Amino acid sequence: MEKSDSKNNMLREGSLDDQVVLVTGGGTGLGKSMTASFLELGASVIIASRKLENLQKTADELNEQFPGKVLPLQCDIRDYDQVEETVAKGVEYFGKINVLVNNAAGNFISPTERLSHRAFDTVVDIVLKGSYNSTLAIGKYWIENGIKGNVLSITTTYTFTGSAYVVPSACGKAGVLALTQSLAVEWAQYGIRLNAIAPGPFPTKGAWTRLFPNEISSLFSPDKKVPLGRFGEHRELTNLACYMISDYAAFMTGEQIVLDGGEWLQGAGQFNFLRQVPSEMWDELEKTVRKGKSE
Ligand code: HXC
Ligand code: NAP
Q1: Can you tell me the mean pLDDT for 24-42?
Q2: What's the total number of domains in the chain?
Q3: Is residue 34 part of a domain?
Q4: If DSSP codes are grouped into helix, strand and coil, which group holds residue 137?
Q5: pLDDT per position as a tens digit, 186-223
Q6: CB under 6 Å to ligand 1: residues?
Q7: Distance of alpha carbon 112 from the chain centroid
Q8: Is-contact 55 72, C-beta < 8 A?
Q9: pLDDT tens, residue by residue, 75-96
Q10: Cα–Cα distances in Å, from 258 out to 71, 240, 264, 266?
Q11: CATH no. for residue 241?
Q12: 1: confidence class by pLDDT, cuts 50, 70, 90
């Protein structure tokens, strides 16, 4: 058997042949990496976001390797009409769309009391409204045309824990999980699946500049924060995304898969702080604890 290589696509070539995927925020970061992996497996991809310049640059780069397979479309997902227009243009160009990846997001760290109500709206509107706009527009198109599509949303692990200092994002992402779980049941009758990936830290320019600026980056070392001791590699996330949108995952719906090297569990377990105890200290500790038993 061939040894697995985490740098490569795990699915067989052609696994996504004939799939047309709409990736929101597909011009940068994880959206760009997922787009590249989908293309490698045979899909065509529409990438949509606000900054046409970024989209065009990514499309030019990827179209060189996969001619005619990437369509960049400017779209602010907060505006339902723009989303509907994007879906219509994508269908006109590729003939259909059968996968939506809700990847676009907005986020930044801030004590909540420092936020204006407009700042709160801005993040929730991108994350939650943008995701339900996209899901509603594509869902209506799928149901009208009898297409058994699927939606993959990129969430976060704080969908189920909440998180201080990114409260608008936490509210928005929790809503995206609720959307995923609710529609997984409601739209199963149409053969539509909805799932989510909750990533831990995967370095991207967009996230790092807004969430881990230099002044505080030392507080967030993977050695301390992530039990597996490192950040995620984009290929690890894109492999999971390829699987979840493919027919190999045809029985999976309403699921959120965490991919975080154990990060959130480390924050949750009451005694996980004991990871910081050096192994040579355990002999002493054991003696003390045993003594305590007989007192
Ligand atoms: C306080 C802020 C602020 C800050 C903006 N605002 N930045 N308030 N602290 N750092 C306020 C503004 O003053 C304004 O309110 C309101 O928010 C809207 O700001 P705009 O700059 O006009 O908004 P816009 O141009 O739409 O940009 C949206 C954005 C921006 C979210 C602020 O950062 C963006 O475009 N982000 C997209 C990419 C992104 O965020 N990627 C990271 C995703 S990472 P007022 O009251 O002044 O009008 C992620 C991962 C999480 O989600 C998990 C990691 C492990
Ligand atoms: P990123 O590169 O900043 O991606 C965010 C994308 O969203 C950008 O391409 C941006 O493009 C797009 N976008 C923002 N507002 C939009 C709008 N109104 N309409 C359309 N598109 C919009 O950051 P990333 O790290 O790759 O994040 C990708 C996804 O992963 C996000 O959902 C994020 O929450 C999630 N995530 C990331 C991490 C991580 O560690 N990186 C961890 C957990 C979850 P424009 O500016 O051109 O609009």
Answers
A1: 98
A2: 1
A3: yes
A4: helix
A5: 999 999 999 999 999 999 999 999 999 989 888 888 88
A6: 105-108, 110, 114-116, 118-119, 122-123, 156, 169, 201, 206-207, 210-211
A7: 24
A8: yes
A9: 999 999 999 999 999 999 999 9
A10: 30, 10, 9, 13
A11: 3.40.50.720
A12: very low
Any catalytic annotation for residue 243?
no
Q: Which atom of ligand 2 is nearest to the CA of 206?
A: 3
> Does 49 sit in the ligand 2 pocket, CB within 6 Å?
yes
The sign of the torsion formed by the CA atoms of 27, 32, 35, 40 equals positive
Q: Is residue 9 part of a domain?
A: no
Residue 10 lies in a domain: no
DSSP, collapsed to helix, strand or coil, labels residue 119 as helix
Name which of 28, 45, 183, 43 is nearest 104 in CA terms.
Answer: 28
pTM for this entry: 0.97
Q: Is there a domain that residue 262 lies in?
A: yes
What token pair was written down for 101? 């990846």
- Determine the distance separating the centroid of ligand 2 and the alpha carbon of 197, expressed in angstroms: 14
Please report the sign of the dihedral spanned by the C-alpha atoms of residue 214, residue 219, residue 221, residue 225.
negative
Instruction: Please report which ligand is nearest the Cα atom of 205.
Output: 2
The token pair at 266 is 């480390």
CA–centroid distance, residue 121 to ligand 1 (Å) = 10
Q: Catalytic residue among 158, 165, 190, 243, which?
A: 158
The predicted-structure confidence for 222-256, as pLDDT tens digits, reads as follows 888 999 999 999 999 999 999 999 999 999 999 99
- Sign of CA pseudo-dihedral 175, 39, 71, 150: negative
Ligand with an atom nearest the CA of residue 108: 1
Cα(164) to ligand 1 centroid in Å equals 16
- Report the nearest atom of ligand 2 relative to the CA of 25: 9
Calculate how far, in angstroms, residue 199's C-alpha sits from the geometric centre of ligand 2: 13
The Cβ of residue 293 has, within 10 Å, a number of other Cβ atoms equal to 6
Residue 206 belongs to domain spanning: 20-294
